[in-house]
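G., before I forget:
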Amino acid sequence: MHETNTRRGPAIRVAEREPFEALARVNSAIPGGVAPGLHEGASASDRPVVDLELVIPAYDEEHRLPATLAAAVEHLTQLARATTLSCAIVVVDNGSVDRTSDLAAAAQGGVPVYLLGCRQRGKGSAVRRGFATSKARWVGFMDADLATPMDTLDRMIPLLREGAPVVIASRNAGEADRVVKQSVFRRAGGSAFRLAARSILPDVADSQCGFKFFDGEAVRAVLADCAIDGFSFDVELLARMRRAGHPIVEVPVLWTDVPGSTFSPLRDGLRSFSDTVRIHRSLHQSLHTSTSGGSR
Amino acid sequence: MTVQTRPDELLENTSPLQGQRVLLLNWRDRTHPLAGGAEVYTWQIGQRLAANGSQVTVFTARHAGSEKESTDAGMRIVRGGGTFGVYLAAAWFLFWHRREFDAVVDFQNGIPFFAPLFAGRRRAVVCVVHHVHTEQFALHFRWPFSRIGQFLEGPASRKVYGARPVVAVSPSTRRDVRRRLRLRGPIHVVPNGSAVRPHVPAGSRSEHPRIVVVSRLVSHKRFDLLVEAVPELLRRHPDLRVDIAGDGPERQVLTARAAELGLSDVVTFHGFVSADKREELLAAGWLTTSPSQAEGWGLTVIEANAAGVPAVAFDVPGLRDSVVPGRTGWIIPRDTSLADGLSTALATLADVEVAAEMADRCRVWAGSFSWDTSADRLAAVVAGEIDARRSRSRRESSDLSVLVTSDLDGFGGDLESLLGRLPQVLRRSDEWQVAGSELRILLHGCDQAVASEVMDRLGLALCSRMRLATSADLLTGGR
C-alpha cells in the first residue's frame, strides 16, 4: 500500500527497522494516561518493558484463539502473581479476514494483551514482528492451537533465569509423548522434514514444536539475519542463535494434535523443505563472509 | 498567519466519481415483483451517485410490463433478458457499449455478471457481494444446476475477477468471499444504510424492564424462542413486559403460544404500527432481541439502536456484525439459552448509568450507517479502481486495516495544506474524516508498521495513535 511499500520486494528485511522507528515516534507522543490494553492498542508496537512477553501468531484463528488466549492470560496472570515477573501477551494478526482481531481486542485479564498486525504473510514474519517490537527480557512464542500445555512455561522459567538463552519445548526429547497421534501422511512428511532440519541442527531433537522462549536481547540481535517467512522459520532462528554461540535447551512436553491448523501438508510441507535448503545456503554464506573478515 | 477555520470545514465534499460514467449491473429492477434488499441497495446508492454528478446507467432484467429503457431517480435504466437471460443480455450490452463507461459495478446475486470478460482489461470493474450463496445453491437447485451455480460463484469468479476489488456488505460476507469463494482482490466493506431515524428523547425508557421488538414476524426470525423464554425471565424479572410490533405469517402462532403459556398480559402483540407508535414503543424499551438463525444484516437491530435500545442476538452471520458485543448489545453463543442472555442483559441495564451509556453508544453506532455515507464509500472504491486501472498499478493486498486517530491540536504545520495532501498520500479507498480537532483515518491493507510510515509522511506521526481495526471499524469506516 501507499506507493513506497508496494514497490518493496520481500527481500529487504533490514529495512523493517525503519517503519518501527517511525512507529516508536508515533507512540512516544501518546499521553501517559493511555491504558496499555488493547482498546488503546496504540502501544501495541511500542510496548512497555516487561520481564516476559508471549507472542501468539494468528491467521484466521477465530475458532481456536479464544480458548488459547484465555488459557495464556490466566496462566500468565498466575505466573505474574506467583513470581512477581511482569508479563504481557502479543497477538500478531497475520492478515486474518475473520474475527481474529475482534476476539483478541476483546481479551481481558490480569496481563495486558496487545494486538499487532503483520501484513507480510507467514508464521515466521508474524513471530519476528512480535519479537522485533519487543523490549522484554525474555520473549517467546506459542502456537494459537494450544497444542503445548501452558504449564510447560513453568519448567522453562527457571532455565531462563539461570541464563539459558534458548529454551524450547520438544516432543522428542526424553519422556515426551504424543497424547493424540497425527495422520500417517503428516508423520511421514514430518520425519522427512526432521531429517533435513537435523542436518542443520544436528543435536536438536525437535525443532518444530510451537513453544519456544529466548533471551530477548540475544534473539533480537539475530532477527535481522532471518529471512524465512514460512513454517520452518524456527529452524533458521535456532540455527542463527546457535551460530551466535547460544546453546539450545530442550524441555520435553506432552503434546496434542489439534485439528484446524492452517498448515497444508503438501504446499507448506514442500515449502518448508525447500526453505531448509535456503537456510543451509544462507548459513553457509554468512559463515563464509564472517570467516573472510567481513564486518558484522 | 493563523487559519481560523475549523478543520472539518476545510474538507471539500465532492464525489470522487463526479463526471464519470458508471454502469450498474443488477439482476432485477426495483419495480420487479420479486425485488428485495439487494435492489434497495443498488437504487439507494445509484441515485446518490447520480445526484453527485455521475452519469449512472443501470442494466437489469426486463420483467413483464416494463419498458426497454426508462429513467428512474436520475438514472438511465436499460432492461433486457429474463431471470437467467439477463446475464447474456448484460454481457451483450456491456460488450457493445463498454466504451461508453468509465466503470462497471457488478452487483452479484449468487451469480455475478462476469463483467471483466466484457469490459476490457483497462476498465474498472467492482463486484458487490451481499451474501455468499454456495450452500443455498444446493438447497434450491437440483444437481447439476446446483454444482453449476457453485462453480460460477466460486472458481469461475475467482478466475474472471482476479485481483479486481470486491465490495462486501458486512464483515461476515467479507470473510466468506475470501475464505469460501476465495476471490483474490482487496475486499472493502460498504454496509447498508438505514432509512429511518427515530427521534426518541433520551431518558424516556419505562421504569420496569421492557423488551421491545419491531420486526416482520416470519418463522426464520424465530420469535417463538423469545415467547418461550418469557416464563423463565419472569421468575427473575417479575415486572417484565414484552412488546412485539409488526405483522407476518407467524403472528397467529406466536399469539396463540403466548396465550397458552398464560402470558397474555405480559406479551403484547401490537400488529403493524404507525411510525409514531413505533417510536413510542422503542422509547420505552430497555432491550430488543433478534433470535434469528441468520440475517443479511440486522436492520431491525440497527433501527432499535437508533432509538438507543441495545440488542441481544445469537452469534450468527449478519447479527454478529450489527451487534458490537459489550458496546451496543450482547452476542450469545448459538446453542445457549436466550432467557439467560436476556436476563443478564436486563440485569446489566437495570443500572441507569450503564444503560444511558449504552444507549448513547447505540445511537452513535446506528448513526454511522446512512445511504449517503455508503454511496460515498462505494464511490471511493470505484474511483480508486479507475485510477489503479489507468496507472496499471499492481498492489499486493492484505486484509488488515489500521485505525489512526490524530489530534490536530498537536499538529504544528498548516492544516489546509495537510488536508489537501491527504488524498495524495492516502488511497482513494482509505477513509478519513475530521470531527472537531480529531482526524480519524482508516487505512486499508496495512499493518501498524506501514500506517506509521504513512503518518510520518503526513507529518502527523507525533500526534497520532493507532490500533488494528476490528469488524466494527470496517463497518463504520472508522466513524
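The CA atoms of residues 145 and 162 of chain A lie 29 Å apart. Chain A touches chain B through 41 residues (CB under 8 Å).

More on Monday.
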